[in-house]
Amino acid sequence: MTVSISEQSVEELGGPDSILVRQRRDHADIDTLMTACLSDAPDSAPSREAWKSLVQLVFTHAFAEETVLWPVLRRLAPDGEKLTERVEQEHQAINDLVARIEKAGDADPRRRAWMQRACALIRQDIRDEEDLLLPRLRDGLDTRRLREIGAAWEGVRRTAPTHPHPAVPRRPPGNALLGIPLSPFDRLRDASSGSTGEPAYRRLVPPALGAAALALGVAGRTWRRGRSGGGPDRHGKRKTGAAVQVAVGQGVFNLVGGLWPLVHRRSFEWVFGSKTDEWLQMTTGGLLTSAGVAQLLAARNPEDTAQARVTGTGTALTLLAIDLLYVPKGRISPTYLLDAALEAGWLAAWRRAAGPRARAGT
Ligand SMILES: [Fe+2]
Ligand SMILES: [Fe+2]
């Protein structure tokens, strides 16, 4: 007869390092956090803090289960496929619901009802695991193996994403291939968000300003090199070298800037504010990515830097104009002024890389 792990002693489950005891410990912590979330108004500071900790704990815990535990169970138990499919569906439902809560924001009137529903799903998942799935591991594995799996699960948990990603598959290798690269974004988000209620993108302004200053410094150095390159160097090598540098620098900048909203829309919107037209954001990201790739390809041949220059000045002028037009109107976030400064830097760098003769049109 299967005995729930909630009814077994720590010794019976393989000691404190066993995967079963680690799971039960986490489940108890999750339960405490869920009670804290729901005992206050959902937009109060204690509830928000408890929710933040709950989300981090639940998603790292579940990701490591899907990566380490359920493949073992599928190999071990004849009904492992059916049982793991059931908890994977529960995990997917929790992912979908928490993603919806995060998108809606703290002040959404539906937040409390969604949080209650998410907590009910998490409680159901815990019951299924403690009563049905985890006892199979106790029955099929010795204590040494339970501890080994416990250590592996703990290791994966440390690299796991800390927020929901409904589009990431629930099974390896797809979950690891797509999920682990998202973990740094999630952890950056956690590090930048606090309990003050201040929007995260505003807290990111100081480090963004530092990055902008660094990029402008690089552009300035290129500018100086371009100025000296336009002088008495009769072979034009320095001038061409400066143009290649600008093409590579702006190509990478456009590539990263274009891919960012395509790969991780949420973190992009934290910095640059939320968008209503997803298709427009996707289109802009795709076009900017194409521009970056075209510049990098052109930079491979010094003869083609004129093409990179046309692409680069075109994108920089367009984005600079949009930033300067729509920030004052309040249509886009003030953080776009950072982008404006960078775009102006690229235009200046291209101007200098072209040299005085080209600037004079001779
Ligand atoms: Fe669990
Ligand atoms: Fe779970």
Count of DSSP E strands?
Answer: 0
Q: Return the CATH architecture of the largest domain.
A: Up-down Bundle
Ions, cofactors and other ligands present here are: fe (ii) ion
Return the average pLDDT rounded to an integer.
Answer: 84
Backbone shape: elongated
Assign the CATH class of the largest domain.
Mainly Alpha
Largest sheet: none
Secondary structure category: mainly alpha
The CATH topology of the largest domain is what?
Four Helix Bundle (Hemerythrin (Met), subunit A)
The percent of residues in helical segments reads over 70%
* N→C terminal distance: 90 Å
% residues in beta strands: under 5%
The total tally of domains equals: 2
CA gyration radius, whole angstroms? 26 Å
What does this structure look like?
The radius of gyration is 26 Å and the shape is elongated. The chain is 75% helix and 0% strand. It folds into two domains: 188 residues, Up-down Bundle (Four Helix Bundle (Hemerythrin (Met), subunit A)); 160 residues, no CATH class. The longest helix has 32 residues. It is built from 14 helices and no strands. The protein is an all-alpha fold and 362 residues long. One fe (ii) ion binds next to helix 2, helix 3 and helix 4.
Primary descriptors:
single chain, 362 residues, mainly alpha, Four Helix Bundle (Hemerythrin (Met), subunit A), 2 domains, 0% strand, binds fe (ii) ion
